[in-house]
Design a protein that fits this description.
Length: about 475
Amino acid sequence: MALLIQNGTVVTAEATFPADVLVEGTTIREVRAGIPADGHTVVDASGLLVLPGGVDAHTHLDMPFGGTTSADDFETGTRAAAIGGTTTIVDFAIQARGTKMRSALDTWWKKAQGKACIDYGLHMIVTDLGTSGLEDMDDMVREGVASFKLFMAYPNVLMVDDATIFKALQQTSKNGALVCMHAENGSVIDVIVQQALAEGKTAPVYHALTRPTVAEAEAVQRAIAMAEIAGAPVYIVHLSSEDALNQVREARDRGVPAFAETCPQYLLLSIEDQMPGKSFEEAKYVFTPPLREKKNQVKLWDGLKDDHLQVVSTDHCPFCFADQKVLGKDDFTKIPNGGPGIENRMQLIYHHGVNAGRLSLNRFVEITAAAPAKIFGMYPRKGTIAAGSDADIVLWDPKAEHTISAATHNMRVDYSMFEGFKVQGNASKVYSRGELIVDDGRFIGETGRGKYLRREARGGAWS
Ligand code: URP
Ligand code: ZN
Ligand code: ZN
Protein backbone atom coordinates (compact mmCIF):
# COMPACT_ATOMS: atom_id res chain seq x y z
CA MET A 1 0.00 0.00 0.00
CA ALA A 2 1.34 3.43 -0.95
CA LEU A 3 1.35 6.59 1.14
CA LEU A 4 -0.48 9.63 -0.19
CA ILE A 5 0.25 13.02 1.32
CA GLN A 6 -2.72 15.15 0.29
CA ASN A 7 -3.59 18.84 0.28
CA GLY A 8 -0.20 20.18 1.28
CA THR A 9 1.90 22.93 -0.28
CA VAL A 10 5.04 21.47 -1.80
CA VAL A 11 8.14 23.63 -1.53
CA THR A 12 11.34 22.94 -3.43
CA ALA A 13 14.28 25.20 -4.18
CA GLU A 14 12.58 26.17 -7.42
CA ALA A 15 8.85 26.37 -6.75
CA THR A 16 5.98 26.47 -4.26
CA PHE A 17 2.76 24.77 -5.39
CA PRO A 18 -0.25 22.89 -4.06
CA ALA A 19 0.21 19.18 -4.79
CA ASP A 20 -0.26 15.67 -3.47
CA VAL A 21 2.77 13.45 -3.01
CA LEU A 22 2.55 9.72 -3.66
CA VAL A 23 5.17 7.58 -1.95
CA GLU A 24 5.74 3.95 -2.86
CA GLY A 25 8.10 2.12 -0.55
CA THR A 26 11.15 4.31 -0.04
CA THR A 27 10.64 6.56 -3.07
CA ILE A 28 8.49 9.46 -4.23
CA ARG A 29 6.48 8.25 -7.23
CA GLU A 30 4.36 11.22 -8.21
CA VAL A 31 3.92 14.88 -7.30
CA ARG A 32 0.82 16.59 -8.68
CA ALA A 33 -2.54 17.98 -7.65
CA GLY A 34 -5.47 15.58 -7.50
CA ILE A 35 -3.85 12.18 -7.11
CA PRO A 36 -6.76 9.83 -6.33
CA ALA A 37 -6.80 8.16 -2.91
CA ASP A 38 -7.20 4.69 -4.52
CA GLY A 39 -6.86 2.75 -1.29
CA HIS A 40 -3.58 4.43 -0.34
CA THR A 41 -2.80 5.40 3.24
CA VAL A 42 -3.79 9.05 3.18
CA VAL A 43 -2.17 11.74 5.31
CA ASP A 44 -3.88 15.11 5.26
CA ALA A 45 -1.32 17.91 5.00
CA SER A 46 -3.82 20.78 4.82
CA GLY A 47 -2.20 23.94 6.13
CA LEU A 48 1.24 22.32 6.10
CA LEU A 49 4.30 22.80 3.91
CA VAL A 50 5.71 19.67 2.30
CA LEU A 51 9.48 20.16 2.39
CA PRO A 52 12.37 17.94 1.40
CA GLY A 53 14.10 16.62 4.51
CA GLY A 54 16.87 18.90 5.68
CA VAL A 55 20.47 18.11 4.77
CA ASP A 56 23.05 19.12 7.37
CA ALA A 57 26.43 18.88 5.67
CA HIS A 58 28.57 19.57 8.73
CA THR A 59 28.25 17.57 11.96
CA HIS A 60 30.67 16.01 14.43
CA LEU A 61 29.12 13.04 16.23
CA ASP A 62 31.14 10.88 18.60
CA MET A 63 34.25 12.82 17.66
CA PRO A 64 37.40 12.81 19.79
CA PHE A 65 38.48 16.43 20.08
CA GLY A 66 40.13 18.73 22.61
CA GLY A 67 40.92 15.87 25.00
CA THR A 68 37.35 14.62 25.12
CA THR A 69 34.61 13.34 22.78
CA SER A 70 31.63 15.22 21.37
CA ALA A 71 28.63 14.46 23.55
CA ASP A 72 26.18 13.25 20.90
CA ASP A 73 26.86 9.94 19.25
CA PHE A 74 25.25 8.75 16.03
CA GLU A 75 22.15 7.67 17.93
CA THR A 76 21.40 10.76 19.97
CA GLY A 77 22.67 13.19 17.34
CA THR A 78 20.75 11.80 14.38
CA ARG A 79 17.61 11.34 16.47
CA ALA A 80 17.73 15.01 17.46
CA ALA A 81 18.40 15.95 13.85
CA ALA A 82 15.33 14.03 12.69
CA ILE A 83 13.12 15.68 15.30
CA GLY A 84 14.23 19.02 13.94
CA GLY A 85 13.42 18.08 10.33
CA THR A 86 16.85 17.01 9.12
CA THR A 87 16.90 13.62 7.38
CA THR A 88 20.48 13.55 6.07
CA ILE A 89 23.77 14.50 7.64
CA VAL A 90 27.33 14.46 6.43
CA ASP A 91 29.69 13.83 9.36
CA PHE A 92 33.49 13.83 9.48
CA ALA A 93 35.84 10.87 9.82
CA ILE A 94 39.34 11.85 10.95
CA GLN A 95 42.46 10.30 9.45
CA ALA A 96 44.91 9.80 12.33
CA ARG A 97 48.37 11.02 11.27
CA GLY A 98 50.49 8.27 9.72
CA THR A 99 47.51 5.98 9.08
CA LYS A 100 45.40 5.08 6.07
CA MET A 101 42.14 6.95 5.48
CA ARG A 102 40.42 3.60 5.10
CA SER A 103 41.06 2.84 8.73
CA ALA A 104 39.31 6.10 9.73
CA LEU A 105 36.42 5.26 7.42
CA ASP A 106 36.06 1.83 9.06
CA THR A 107 36.13 3.47 12.50
CA TRP A 108 33.38 5.93 11.57
CA TRP A 109 31.24 3.28 9.91
CA LYS A 110 31.44 1.35 13.20
CA LYS A 111 30.45 4.44 15.18
CA ALA A 112 27.34 4.81 13.02
CA GLN A 113 26.51 1.10 12.77
CA GLY A 114 23.35 0.22 14.67
CA LYS A 115 22.96 3.82 15.80
CA ALA A 116 22.25 6.19 12.92
CA CYS A 117 18.55 7.06 12.79
CA ILE A 118 18.76 8.92 9.46
CA ASP A 119 20.95 8.54 6.38
CA TYR A 120 24.49 9.80 6.67
CA GLY A 121 27.47 10.46 4.48
CA LEU A 122 31.06 11.02 5.58
CA HIS A 123 33.68 13.58 4.69
CA MET A 124 37.30 12.61 5.41
CA ILE A 125 39.49 14.96 7.44
CA VAL A 126 42.95 14.73 5.91
CA THR A 127 45.79 15.20 8.38
CA ASP A 128 48.64 13.61 6.46
CA LEU A 129 49.19 12.73 2.83
CA GLY A 130 52.32 10.64 3.62
CA THR A 131 53.41 8.45 0.75
CA SER A 132 50.05 7.03 -0.32
CA GLY A 133 47.63 9.77 0.73
CA LEU A 134 46.70 10.80 -2.79
CA GLU A 135 45.82 7.23 -3.76
CA ASP A 136 43.97 7.01 -0.45
CA MET A 137 41.85 9.94 -1.54
CA ASP A 138 40.89 8.11 -4.73
CA ASP A 139 40.12 5.03 -2.65
CA MET A 140 37.79 7.13 -0.48
CA VAL A 141 36.03 8.54 -3.53
CA ARG A 142 35.32 4.97 -4.66
CA GLU A 143 33.69 4.42 -1.25
CA GLY A 144 31.43 7.43 -1.67
CA VAL A 145 33.50 9.82 0.42
CA ALA A 146 33.23 12.63 -2.10
CA SER A 147 34.71 15.42 0.04
CA PHE A 148 37.76 16.06 2.19
CA LYS A 149 38.23 18.60 4.95
CA LEU A 150 41.60 20.20 5.54
CA PHE A 151 42.50 22.54 8.37
CA MET A 152 44.46 25.78 8.11
CA ALA A 153 44.07 26.14 11.90
CA TYR A 154 44.69 24.09 15.08
CA PRO A 155 48.53 23.87 14.80
CA ASN A 156 49.98 20.54 16.02
CA VAL A 157 46.53 18.96 16.02
CA LEU A 158 44.77 19.04 12.66
CA MET A 159 46.51 21.85 10.77
CA VAL A 160 48.27 20.95 7.53
CA ASP A 161 50.66 23.05 5.47
CA ASP A 162 49.91 24.72 2.14
CA ALA A 163 51.78 22.03 0.20
CA THR A 164 49.43 19.37 1.60
CA ILE A 165 46.39 21.51 0.84
CA PHE A 166 47.59 22.19 -2.68
CA LYS A 167 48.31 18.51 -3.40
CA ALA A 168 44.88 17.53 -2.10
CA LEU A 169 43.26 20.20 -4.29
CA GLN A 170 45.16 18.94 -7.32
CA GLN A 171 43.95 15.41 -6.59
CA THR A 172 40.33 16.54 -6.36
CA SER A 173 40.70 18.35 -9.68
CA LYS A 174 41.28 14.85 -11.09
CA ASN A 175 38.94 12.65 -9.03
CA GLY A 176 36.00 15.09 -8.84
CA ALA A 177 35.83 15.30 -5.05
CA LEU A 178 35.50 18.57 -3.16
CA VAL A 179 37.93 20.05 -0.65
CA CYS A 180 36.30 21.68 2.37
CA MET A 181 38.53 24.21 4.08
CA HIS A 182 38.62 25.25 7.71
CA ALA A 183 39.99 28.64 6.79
CA GLU A 184 41.77 30.52 9.57
CA ASN A 185 45.46 31.40 9.70
CA GLY A 186 46.36 29.05 12.56
CA SER A 187 50.02 30.11 12.83
CA VAL A 188 49.21 33.79 13.30
CA ILE A 189 46.37 33.01 15.68
CA ASP A 190 48.66 30.81 17.75
CA VAL A 191 51.09 33.71 18.30
CA ILE A 192 48.24 35.98 19.42
CA VAL A 193 46.89 33.24 21.70
CA GLN A 194 50.28 32.70 23.39
CA GLN A 195 50.66 36.45 23.93
CA ALA A 196 47.19 36.65 25.49
CA LEU A 197 47.92 33.77 27.86
CA ALA A 198 51.23 35.37 28.86
CA GLU A 199 49.24 38.48 29.80
CA GLY A 200 46.96 36.39 32.02
CA LYS A 201 44.01 36.57 29.63
CA THR A 202 42.52 33.14 30.26
CA ALA A 203 38.73 33.71 30.16
CA PRO A 204 36.55 32.21 27.38
CA VAL A 205 36.09 35.55 25.62
CA TYR A 206 39.78 35.55 24.74
CA HIS A 207 39.14 32.60 22.48
CA ALA A 208 37.12 35.00 20.32
CA LEU A 209 39.37 38.02 20.79
CA THR A 210 42.51 36.16 19.69
CA ARG A 211 41.05 35.07 16.34
CA PRO A 212 40.67 38.20 14.19
CA THR A 213 38.29 38.16 11.22
CA VAL A 214 41.23 39.10 9.00
CA ALA A 215 42.91 35.81 9.95
CA GLU A 216 39.81 34.10 8.56
CA ALA A 217 39.69 36.29 5.45
CA GLU A 218 43.38 35.75 4.71
CA ALA A 219 42.95 31.97 4.89
CA VAL A 220 39.82 32.05 2.72
CA GLN A 221 41.68 34.11 0.13
CA ARG A 222 44.68 31.72 0.25
CA ALA A 223 42.48 28.63 0.02
CA ILE A 224 40.67 30.01 -3.00
CA ALA A 225 43.94 31.05 -4.64
CA MET A 226 45.37 27.55 -4.19
CA ALA A 227 42.17 26.03 -5.58
CA GLU A 228 42.37 28.32 -8.59
CA ILE A 229 45.96 27.30 -9.29
CA ALA A 230 45.01 23.63 -8.89
CA GLY A 231 41.96 24.03 -11.12
CA ALA A 232 39.70 22.63 -8.39
CA PRO A 233 36.54 23.86 -6.70
CA VAL A 234 36.68 24.66 -2.99
CA TYR A 235 34.09 24.87 -0.22
CA ILE A 236 34.69 27.09 2.81
CA VAL A 237 33.15 25.63 5.96
CA HIS A 238 31.62 27.58 8.84
CA LEU A 239 32.28 31.04 7.40
CA SER A 240 31.70 33.55 10.16
CA SER A 241 32.54 37.10 9.11
CA GLU A 242 32.01 39.83 6.55
CA ASP A 243 35.76 39.98 5.85
CA ALA A 244 35.81 36.30 4.90
CA LEU A 245 32.58 36.59 2.93
CA ASN A 246 34.07 39.40 0.83
CA GLN A 247 36.77 36.99 -0.33
CA VAL A 248 34.23 34.38 -1.42
CA ARG A 249 32.08 36.95 -3.18
CA GLU A 250 35.04 38.42 -5.03
CA ALA A 251 36.08 34.95 -6.24
CA ARG A 252 32.57 33.93 -7.29
CA ASP A 253 32.14 37.22 -9.15
CA ARG A 254 35.18 36.21 -11.21
CA GLY A 255 33.55 32.86 -11.97
CA VAL A 256 35.73 30.81 -9.63
CA PRO A 257 33.92 27.69 -8.30
CA ALA A 258 34.13 28.69 -4.64
CA PHE A 259 31.28 27.69 -2.32
CA ALA A 260 30.70 28.54 1.32
CA GLU A 261 28.46 27.71 4.23
CA THR A 262 27.64 29.58 7.38
CA CYS A 263 25.89 28.35 10.55
CA PRO A 264 22.99 29.58 12.74
CA GLN A 265 25.35 30.66 15.50
CA TYR A 266 27.08 33.18 13.23
CA LEU A 267 23.75 34.48 11.95
CA LEU A 268 22.10 34.87 15.34
CA LEU A 269 24.68 35.11 18.14
CA SER A 270 27.43 37.64 18.74
CA ILE A 271 30.32 38.59 20.99
CA GLU A 272 28.28 41.51 22.31
CA ASP A 273 25.28 39.37 23.30
CA GLN A 274 26.82 36.05 24.29
CA MET A 275 30.39 36.86 25.33
CA PRO A 276 30.56 40.11 27.27
CA GLY A 277 33.61 38.73 29.10
CA LYS A 278 31.88 38.37 32.45
CA SER A 279 31.88 34.66 33.34
CA PHE A 280 33.05 31.18 32.51
CA GLU A 281 29.48 30.39 31.30
CA GLU A 282 30.64 31.98 28.06
CA ALA A 283 32.59 28.77 27.40
CA LYS A 284 29.28 27.52 25.99
CA TYR A 285 30.02 29.71 22.97
CA VAL A 286 33.61 28.67 22.44
CA PHE A 287 33.84 27.26 18.95
CA THR A 288 36.01 27.97 15.95
CA PRO A 289 35.81 30.31 14.10
CA PRO A 290 34.48 32.21 17.11
CA LEU A 291 31.46 34.42 17.53
CA ARG A 292 31.95 37.75 15.82
CA GLU A 293 30.76 41.30 16.37
CA LYS A 294 27.06 41.70 15.71
CA LYS A 295 27.58 43.85 12.62
CA ASN A 296 28.62 40.72 10.70
CA GLN A 297 25.20 39.09 11.01
CA VAL A 298 23.36 41.24 8.47
CA LYS A 299 26.17 40.68 5.96
CA LEU A 300 25.86 36.91 6.34
CA TRP A 301 22.07 37.03 5.89
CA ASP A 302 22.54 39.15 2.78
CA GLY A 303 25.18 36.72 1.57
CA LEU A 304 22.69 33.86 1.89
CA LYS A 305 19.98 35.77 0.07
CA ASP A 306 22.29 36.78 -2.78
CA ASP A 307 23.97 33.34 -3.14
CA HIS A 308 27.41 34.50 -2.05
CA LEU A 309 26.83 31.82 0.62
CA GLN A 310 25.17 28.61 -0.54
CA VAL A 311 24.51 26.54 2.57
CA VAL A 312 23.56 26.72 6.24
CA SER A 313 24.90 23.78 8.20
CA THR A 314 25.31 23.47 11.96
CA ASP A 315 28.91 22.43 12.69
CA HIS A 316 27.17 20.53 15.50
CA CYS A 317 29.98 19.59 17.89
CA PRO A 318 28.45 19.44 21.37
CA PHE A 319 30.35 19.36 24.65
CA CYS A 320 28.56 19.41 28.00
CA PHE A 321 29.23 22.49 30.04
CA ALA A 322 29.41 20.69 33.40
CA ASP A 323 32.12 18.16 32.67
CA GLN A 324 33.64 19.06 29.28
CA LYS A 325 33.69 22.82 28.72
CA VAL A 326 34.93 23.09 32.28
CA LEU A 327 38.25 21.52 31.21
CA GLY A 328 39.22 25.06 30.24
CA LYS A 329 38.24 26.76 33.50
CA ASP A 330 41.67 28.34 33.92
CA ASP A 331 42.77 28.49 30.30
CA PHE A 332 40.50 29.17 27.32
CA THR A 333 42.73 27.11 25.02
CA LYS A 334 41.67 24.00 26.93
CA ILE A 335 37.95 24.54 26.41
CA PRO A 336 36.80 21.90 23.89
CA ASN A 337 35.82 23.83 20.76
CA GLY A 338 32.31 23.32 19.48
CA GLY A 339 28.64 23.90 20.11
CA PRO A 340 25.32 22.06 19.69
CA GLY A 341 22.71 22.87 17.05
CA ILE A 342 21.75 19.85 14.92
CA GLU A 343 18.15 19.90 16.20
CA ASN A 344 17.39 23.57 15.72
CA ARG A 345 18.82 24.54 12.33
CA MET A 346 15.56 24.30 10.37
CA GLN A 347 13.49 26.09 13.03
CA LEU A 348 16.00 28.92 13.43
CA ILE A 349 16.57 29.54 9.73
CA TYR A 350 12.86 29.30 8.96
CA HIS A 351 11.93 31.71 11.73
CA HIS A 352 14.75 34.22 11.38
CA GLY A 353 14.99 33.79 7.63
CA VAL A 354 11.51 33.24 6.18
CA ASN A 355 9.32 34.73 8.91
CA ALA A 356 11.63 37.72 9.23
CA GLY A 357 11.43 38.38 5.49
CA ARG A 358 15.13 37.78 4.90
CA LEU A 359 14.71 34.65 2.77
CA SER A 360 12.04 33.30 0.45
CA LEU A 361 10.59 29.87 1.21
CA ASN A 362 12.40 28.48 -1.82
CA ARG A 363 15.71 29.94 -0.76
CA PHE A 364 15.15 28.43 2.70
CA VAL A 365 14.76 24.98 1.12
CA GLU A 366 17.72 25.61 -1.12
CA ILE A 367 20.21 26.53 1.60
CA THR A 368 19.04 23.90 4.10
CA ALA A 369 18.49 20.95 1.74
CA ALA A 370 18.87 21.28 -2.04
CA ALA A 371 22.21 23.08 -2.26
CA PRO A 372 24.06 20.86 0.25
CA ALA A 373 22.63 17.79 -1.51
CA LYS A 374 23.88 19.11 -4.86
CA ILE A 375 27.28 20.31 -3.69
CA PHE A 376 27.97 17.07 -1.83
CA GLY A 377 26.83 14.64 -4.51
CA MET A 378 23.44 13.47 -3.19
CA TYR A 379 21.03 15.26 -5.54
CA PRO A 380 18.31 14.55 -6.64
CA ARG A 381 18.16 11.52 -4.35
CA LYS A 382 18.15 13.97 -1.42
CA GLY A 383 17.20 17.64 -1.21
CA THR A 384 14.03 17.81 -3.28
CA ILE A 385 10.43 16.62 -3.61
CA ALA A 386 10.29 14.97 -7.02
CA ALA A 387 9.39 11.66 -8.62
CA GLY A 388 12.32 9.28 -8.15
CA SER A 389 13.77 11.04 -5.10
CA ASP A 390 14.04 9.33 -1.73
CA ALA A 391 10.86 9.97 0.21
CA ASP A 392 12.61 12.16 2.80
CA ILE A 393 9.75 14.51 3.52
CA VAL A 394 8.99 16.97 6.28
CA LEU A 395 5.45 18.11 6.93
CA TRP A 396 6.23 21.54 8.25
CA ASP A 397 3.71 23.43 10.33
CA PRO A 398 4.35 27.13 9.68
CA LYS A 399 2.14 28.08 12.64
CA ALA A 400 3.67 25.82 15.30
CA GLU A 401 5.35 27.77 18.08
CA HIS A 402 8.28 26.43 20.00
CA THR A 403 10.68 27.73 22.62
CA ILE A 404 14.16 26.26 22.31
CA SER A 405 15.55 25.01 25.61
CA ALA A 406 18.00 22.46 27.00
CA ALA A 407 15.18 21.35 29.29
CA THR A 408 13.24 19.96 26.32
CA HIS A 409 15.72 19.40 23.53
CA ASN A 410 16.80 15.95 22.41
CA MET A 411 20.50 16.56 21.96
CA ARG A 412 22.65 14.91 24.66
CA VAL A 413 24.12 18.13 25.94
CA ASP A 414 23.35 20.11 29.05
CA TYR A 415 22.81 23.52 27.48
CA SER A 416 21.43 25.17 24.37
CA MET A 417 23.20 27.95 22.51
CA PHE A 418 19.73 29.25 21.67
CA GLU A 419 18.15 28.93 25.12
CA GLY A 420 14.84 30.80 25.25
CA PHE A 421 14.72 31.57 21.53
CA LYS A 422 11.09 31.51 20.41
CA VAL A 423 10.48 30.20 16.91
CA GLN A 424 7.38 29.82 14.78
CA GLY A 425 7.47 26.95 12.25
CA ASN A 426 8.40 23.40 13.13
CA ALA A 427 8.46 19.83 11.82
CA SER A 428 5.19 18.09 12.51
CA LYS A 429 5.85 14.76 10.74
CA VAL A 430 9.15 13.55 9.31
CA TYR A 431 9.52 10.72 6.79
CA SER A 432 12.82 9.13 5.93
CA ARG A 433 12.79 6.90 2.84
CA GLY A 434 9.01 6.70 3.16
CA GLU A 435 8.99 5.73 6.81
CA LEU A 436 7.35 7.97 9.39
CA ILE A 437 10.15 8.52 11.90
CA VAL A 438 8.99 11.64 13.75
CA ASP A 439 5.45 12.38 14.78
CA ASP A 440 4.62 15.51 16.73
CA GLY A 441 8.12 15.95 18.13
CA ARG A 442 8.66 12.27 19.02
CA PHE A 443 11.09 9.97 17.26
CA ILE A 444 9.26 6.75 16.44
CA GLY A 445 11.71 5.15 13.99
CA GLU A 446 14.07 2.33 14.74
CA THR A 447 17.50 3.21 16.02
CA GLY A 448 20.14 2.09 13.52
CA ARG A 449 17.83 2.36 10.49
CA GLY A 450 19.96 5.11 8.92
CA LYS A 451 22.03 4.08 5.91
CA TYR A 452 25.47 5.13 4.75
CA LEU A 453 25.22 7.33 1.64
CA ARG A 454 27.72 6.72 -1.12
CA ARG A 455 28.04 10.18 -2.60
CA GLU A 456 29.04 11.08 -6.12
CA ALA A 457 32.24 13.07 -6.66
CA ARG A 458 31.04 15.86 -8.90
CA GLY A 459 33.23 18.67 -7.68
CA GLY A 460 30.40 20.71 -6.26
CA ALA A 461 28.48 20.60 -9.56
CA TRP A 462 24.89 21.72 -9.26
CA SER A 463 22.95 19.08 -11.15
O1 URP B 1 34.70 24.60 17.08
C1 URP B 1 34.45 23.83 16.18
N1 URP B 1 34.06 24.30 15.03
N2 URP B 1 34.55 22.49 16.40
C2 URP B 1 34.42 21.49 15.43
C3 URP B 1 35.65 21.33 14.61
C4 URP B 1 35.67 22.25 13.42
O2 URP B 1 36.62 23.00 13.26
O3 URP B 1 34.74 22.22 12.62
ZN1 ZN C 1 36.41 23.51 11.16
ZN1 ZN D 1 33.18 21.41 12.16
